[in-house]
Fold this protein.
Amino acid sequence: MVTKKTTKSGQVDLPEPVVDLEGMFFPPLNGETTGKIAEHYREIIRLLGEDPDRDDLRKTPARVADSLRFLTAGYYRNLDEVIGEGIFEDKCDEMILLRDIELYSLCEHHILPFFGKAHVAYIPNGKIIGLSKIPEIVDVFARRLQVQERLTNQIADTLMAVLKPKGVGVVIEAHHLCMMMRGIQKQNSKAITSAMRGGFKRYSKTRMEFLRLIELSNGSH
Ligand SMILES: [Zn+2]
């Protein structure tokens, strides 16, 4: 199955940092694909040593397939549509911060959840974005197979691309079930990633104000 994304201009393999404004197109979002995922899951259940025809398991493959489609729905969302009319002219030039945005994603190494909070700030430069759009942008990228570092960068790069602001700061703190349930089994460790752009990268004062507002500057960051 082709999984490469193409842009409107027909380019493939955008240079880093990639801002996927177009969304991805393959495979088609339809019942046939979901049915195939369910068939594979039936086989996985069998290979794990269970009986996929056991009464309580019979509907599980279809449920898992539906749930996976939901958890990876970000592949099918077009950022232009998500943002829509949500950008406005404004003279505000102070930091705008949305903190504690709930976040659920899937680690691409183990397809196990990682979850936590995203904090997103920017300093406008003539344009602001509707506050409700920021969690939607987070979800577009979180609902994919991800690594936390890339997710953090994609959110920052998207806001840089659509707002051309004076700067963007994104911090994500998350627990990874692949670390908690298996591997090193560290229940309380949290991974913290940050992406600083523009003034947030250049000026430590701006960065520190952001980190102070999200109360990480004296913590583990
Ligand atoms: Zn993992």
About this structure: The first helix runs from residue 31 to 47. DSSP finds eight helices and seven strands in the chain. The longest strand covers residues 96-107. The chain has a mean pLDDT of 86.
